[in-house]
Specification:
Elements: H1 2-18, H2 23-44, H3 64-69, H4 71-74, H5 81-94, E1 105-108, E2 118-121, H6 123-137, E3 147-152, H7 157-160, E4 168-173, H8 178-188, E5 192-195, H9 197-203, E6 214-218, H10 224-234, E7 238-244, E8 247-252, E9 258-260, E10 265-271, E11 278-285, E12 296-297, E13 300-304, E14 317-324, E15 329-332, E16 338-341, H11 343-353, E17 359-366, E18 369-375, H12 380-396, E19 403-408, E20 421-422
Parallel strand pairs: 3-4, 3-5, 5-6, 6-7, 17-20, 18-19
Antiparallel strand pairs: 1-2, 7-8, 8-9, 9-14, 10-11, 11-12, 11-13, 13-14, 15-16, 17-18
Helix pairs in contact: 1-6, 9-10, 11-12
Length: about 425
């Protein structure tokens, strides 16, 4: 009964927050939450004790290696990474995600950034997360009798928490043989289908009986190649859930715009360009207490929406999630200065110049040297058009064109996160 009461309270609060139309309301709620979080963390987290009473900008900026390296001192329940990591790895290998640590959910990120992240969530936080997600995903309420299919790499009691009242939830494990998995998804007849883009793409080949009313992309960047094919097959706008190890970061509104999860989050933008259109978010999750997420620098590049969203919500609107900072390629201009080349610009060129494209990737093998993989590999004339387009893009950015190698692409397995544009890593950007 206590969990149901917690769920309903959190659900009602999330519905109210989702209707906020004034920035002043969001900022007022967020500042109150921040004050509570800072006081709690300074009192209960050994790592943050020294920052008691300090303003937020004096608290350290975290990244995943530091967050994991200081795990034992950051968490507020005395958990030890060496005790939890075997538990999480055992769940991955046995595919049994029901085990917990003292009632707390333990899980791992996929580790595509090179650093696996471990998250620790209390039962109360798990219920609050579920209630917030249900409030965002189900605008018609808890009794809408939806069937939600999550096709994920790993399960978690976090997802099982969603199976509440009129919502029927089922987790489908990507580690199972694909044909068996696809058959089970079709037999479930989901009204809401949630998976990463490459899995959704594979499900476009499923029988017509798979007709979800809503399709939700998670875990990877949704680019226009995927979006076009998915919307053509399923006949509905593809929505997005922006989520990471660090928490629920954003969801799509009815107008198709991603709104960050304010006022549950405080977002400090680390701007990447002069006109402040793209940034890397530094987030503070105001509701995580077991493993505080304070001034955590994500590895994502977000592009802001220039016009107000028609839905009227005051939460920060994002035009696109363009990938991670490692998906940013760099060239040099004639003076030798660094010039950033954003992944969405590259995607547009590839899609415009290569018809009948099924898959692609652009990999920065060295500064100024890119390998472009295409599936299927088009004729030489089309390859020439693509080279011309990429050179034209480089010149329009004021950069010296890269050396390009085009070859056939081998499609990655569905268990791995897709990164269509992969750079060598972060560098400084001209301010």
């Amino acid at each position: 009964m206590r969990q149901i009461a917690t769920f309903l309270t959190a659900y009602a609060r999330a519905r109210r927050f989702n209707r906020l139309r004034r920035r002043s309301e969001i900022e007022r709620i967020a500042q109150r939450g921040l004050q509570d979080l800072q006081q709690f963390a300074a009192r209960r987290s050994p790592f943050y004790q020294r920052y008691a009473g300090a303003p937020l900008h004096e608290w350290p900026i975290m990244n995943k290696p530091t967050w994991m390296g200081e795990f034992d001192r950051i968490n507020t329940v005395g958990a030890k990474l060496d005790d939890l990591l075997p538990l999480a790895l055992r769940a991955e290998s046995t595919r049994d995600f029901s085990r917990s640590w003292r009632g707390h959910t333990v899980g791992l990120s996929s580790g595509t950034s090179g650093h696996r992240g471990l998250f620790l969530v209390s039962p109360r936080e798990r219920v609050q997360w579920a209630a917030t997600l249900v409030a965002r995903m189900l605008p018609y309420g808890l009794l809408s009798h939806e069937r939600v299919a999550f096709v994920f790499r790993a399960g978690s009691p976090l997802y099982e928490s969603i199976g509440t009242l009129g919502v029927q939830f089922r987790f489908f494990d990507q580690a199972n043989p694909w044909q068996e998995l696809a058959t089970k998804v079709c037999l479930f007849r989901p009204t809401i289908l949630v998976a990463q883009p490459q899995v959704l793409r594979l499900l476009t080949a499923a029988p017509d009986s798979l007709r979800p009313r809503r399709v939700v992309s998670v875990a990877e960047v949704l680019d226009e190649l995927d979006r076009a094919q998915l919307e053509h097959r399923f006949g509905t706008q593809v929505e997005q859930i922006y989520q990471a190890t660090e928490g629920l970061l954003g969801t799509t509104c009815e107008s198709g715009t991603i709104h960050l999860n304010e006022p549950y989050l405080i977002v400090e933008p680390d701007w990447l360009d002069r006109n402040r259109s793209r940034f890397i978010p530094i987030i503070t999750d105001l509701w995580r207490r077991t493993q505080p997420v304070i001034r955590y620098r994500l590895n994502d590049i977000l592009r802001t929406r220039s016009a107000p969203c028609p839905c009227g919500r005051a939460a920060l609107a994002i035009e696109a999630i363009e990938g991670r900072s490692d998906d940013l390629l760099w060239l040099r201009d004639r003076s030798g200065a660094q010039v950033p080349v954003f992944s969405d610009l590259l995607t547009r060129v590839v899609m415009q110049r290569v018809p009948a494209l099924q898959e692609y990737e652009i990999v920065e093998v060295d500064r100024g040297h890119w390998r472009v993989g295409l599936s299927p590999l088009p004729p030489d004339s089309v390859q020439g058009e693509l080279v011309a387009g990429l050179i034209s893009l480089s010149e329009s950015l004021g950069a010296e064109p890269p050396t390009l190698k085009i070859d056939s692409l081998i499609t990655p397995p569905t268990s791995a996160k897709r990164r269509r544009v992969r750079g060598l890593g972060a560098t400084s950007c001209a301010s």
